[in-house]
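Customer escalation, tier 2.

The customer says the design service returned an amino acid string that "doesn't look like it belongs to this structure." They asked us to rerun it and document both sides in this ticket. The original structure tokens are below, unchanged.
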């Protein structure tokens, strides 16, 4: 199948061709016709499957059928994303695929001044891409009108729920007209996602291009067993010895991301950290430098990494396993994208055995495990609870002593703090 078989307009096909694409991905081939038919969508698609174009191309076409009003433009399509980076990425896609159309768009998120956003909204836009917190800021200040929205797109709904945005999502939905087309995209499913879908979607077309809660078949996954305090040294050796030029590394905490990035810099490995405590300007620069190859290693927390869209990213490293198994799927989905092969490597210490078992249960696959000579785990070290703030210090071997119940409560508290950092940092 070719894009030309999907009944897309000449102007949209021209923009797609400019990007060098001829054949749609599976999610695009299924989603585009259903959206053009006006149906609600429930799409289960991993990151890197082309889902953004899957909803953006038909949305542009549907809006372009009706010329913008001669008076002030009104928001006709709303795209809600969990993070600033993903909002920016989707905003770029609108410009890329809509460049031959007369539609206007803008992006609003926290962490930056609100006044330029208010000015853009006053001038009128057809398509709005937003994060929940900043969108509700505008609604509270009455600087936004959502009463004309025809298409509502909820992107990465699972991450929205993980970040504690469900109440904000419901507040946004309450501001929309009852008659509208709804598109929900999620890389993984949960009971909460199903509940949200049932309340939001009407007779949806269900699209699933990969088995639920599974990792990409194009990603080679493996585990290296190593003591916690030796992870930094091992990672530095792996990068240097294998001459990796572009590596995305995940840590559980913001402090851990900073500490690891500083360590790699001392090892003469160019690195940058990206997380919720960084300013939007710093996050944008770090990501741009990583894409351009100015830095080899980008160390990121889960929340900050959403929206990182890099073609043919070769390596993803889990410096620390996530305590939520579904986050593993999101993490490794940064590689093995758009038909390209990739490698996902996890450095696992004895404290993380429980997390590893949960991940293998979720993806229904036992991961290959190996040991690197010179970094053999000390068999005398016993597993201990991981502080929700992180694991044992990567370099000092500090031990956590909190209980499992405290870890669960800490998990929710951290989500709430990260939510505020990722989306509400620019609230005024």
């Amino acid at each position: 199948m070719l894009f030309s078989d999907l009944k897309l307009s000449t102007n949209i096909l021209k923009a797609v061709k400019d990007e060098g694409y001829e054949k749609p991905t599976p999610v695009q081939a299924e989603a585009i016709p259903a959206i053009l038919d006006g149906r609600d969508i429930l799409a289960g698609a991993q990151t890197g499957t082309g889902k953004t174009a899957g909803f953006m191309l038909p949305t542009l076409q549907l809006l372009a059928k009706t010329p913008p009003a001669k008076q002030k433009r009104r928001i006709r399509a709303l795209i809600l994303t969990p993070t600033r980076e993903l909002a920016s990425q989707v905003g770029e896609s609108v410009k890329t695929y809509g460049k031959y159309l007369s539609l206007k768009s803008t992006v609003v998120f926290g962490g930056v001044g609100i006044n330029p956003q208010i000015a853009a909204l006053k001038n009128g836009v057809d398509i709005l891409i937003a994060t929940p917190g900043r969108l509700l800021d505008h609604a509270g200040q009455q600087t936004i009108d959502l009463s004309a929205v025809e298409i509502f797109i909820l992107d990465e709904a699972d991450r929205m729920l993980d970040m504690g945005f469900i109440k904000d999502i419901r507040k946004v939905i309450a501001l929309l007209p009852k008659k509208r087309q709804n598109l929900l995209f999620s890389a993984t499913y949960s009971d909460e996602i199903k509940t949200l879908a049932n309340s939001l979607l009407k007779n949806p077309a269900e699209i699933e291009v990969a088995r639920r809660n599974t990792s990409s078949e194009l990603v080679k996954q493996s585990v290296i067993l190593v003591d916690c305090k030796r992870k930094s040294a091992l990672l530095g050796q792996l990068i240097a010895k294998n001459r990796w030029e572009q590596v995305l590394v995940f840590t559980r905490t913001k402090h851990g991301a900073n500490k690891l990035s500083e360590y790699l810099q001392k090892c003469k490995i160019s690195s940058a950290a990206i997380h919720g405590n960084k300013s939007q300007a710093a996050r944008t620069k770090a990501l741009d430098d990583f894409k351009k190859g100015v830095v080899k290693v980008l160390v990121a927390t889960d929340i900050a990494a959403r929206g990182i869209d890099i073609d043919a990213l070769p390596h993803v490293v889990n410096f620390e396993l996530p305590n939520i198994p579904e986050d593993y799927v999101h993490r490794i989905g940064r590689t093995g994208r758009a038909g390209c092969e990739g490698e996902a490597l996890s450095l696992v210490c004895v404290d993380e055995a429980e997390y590893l078992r949960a991940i293998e249960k979720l993806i229904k696959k036992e991961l290959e495990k190996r040991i690197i000579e010179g970094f053999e785990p000390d068999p005398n070290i016993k597993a201990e609870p991981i502080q929700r703030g992180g694991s044992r210090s990567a370099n000092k071997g500090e031990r956590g002593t909190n209980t499992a119940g405290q870890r669960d409560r800490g998990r929710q508290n951290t989500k709430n703090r990260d939510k505020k950092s990722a989306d509400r940092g620019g609230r005024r």
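Tier 2 assessment: The sequence is consistent with the input. The CA atoms of residues 111 and 280 lie 6 Å apart. The chain has 16 helices and 14 strands. Sent an explanation to the customer and offered a walkthrough call.
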